[in-house]
Amino acid sequence: MEVDSFQCFVKPRINATLSDFFVSLTEITQAQIDTDGIDFAAALQQFMDWTKNREAYSFGGDEEILQINCELYNIPRTMKNIFHDARDVFRQAGIPAEKYNSGTINKYFNIPNNDTEHNALADARNILSSLKTLYSK
Q1: SS3 sequence, the chain?
Q2: Is the CB of residue 117 less than 8 Å from the CB of residue 105?
Q3: Going residue by residue through the chain (137 aa), what tens digit of pLDDT does each one get?
Q4: Is residue 2 part of a domain?
Q5: Are 45 and 17 in contact (CB under 8 A)?
């Protein structure tokens, strides 16, 4: 059961203009970034405050991207101690997680996904519904 959610847009310092590919992939618009986007350091702090510095899960690799950004912003934080790979949970259950991404793992369980693949919040909800189905068996 989802009890809370977190979403914010980060206004990039490098490559500040979103590519057509990115907009098409995520359905996040330049206008959303320009209007609602905040600096990476502020977004990371908001995320850490939201998680209350507890561990978090991603579908692999997000911690590496966050770590690179921390280094670019000179933020002394180690992301590898915070994130775990949700794919490991699926693999332990015998599910070939490497054949899916966070927006498609639902297909293994025949769960419809009516949201945008590659949108972080939608993908997190997709992982959650897949985990709920896994643990309800």
Answers
A1: CCCCCCCCCECCCCCCCCCHHHHHHHCCCHHHHHHHCECHHHHHHHHHHHHCCCCEEECCCHHHHHHHHHHHCCCCCCHHHCEEEHHHHHHHCCCCHHHCCCCCHHHHHCCCCCCCCCCHHHHHHHHHHHHHHHHHC
A2: no
A3: 788 999 999 999 888 999 999 999 999 999 999 999 999 999 999 999 999 978 888 898 888 999 999 999 999 988 878 888 999 999 999 999 999 999 999 999 999 887 888 888 999 999 999 999 999 97
A4: no
A5: no
**What is the token pair recorded at 127?**
């992982």
Which residues, 6+ apart, have CB-to-CB distance to 85 below 8 Å? 57, 58, 59, 60
Domain coverage including residue 39: 20-136
* Closest residue by Cα to residue 116 from 103, 129, 125: 103
Q: How many domains does the chain have?
A: 1
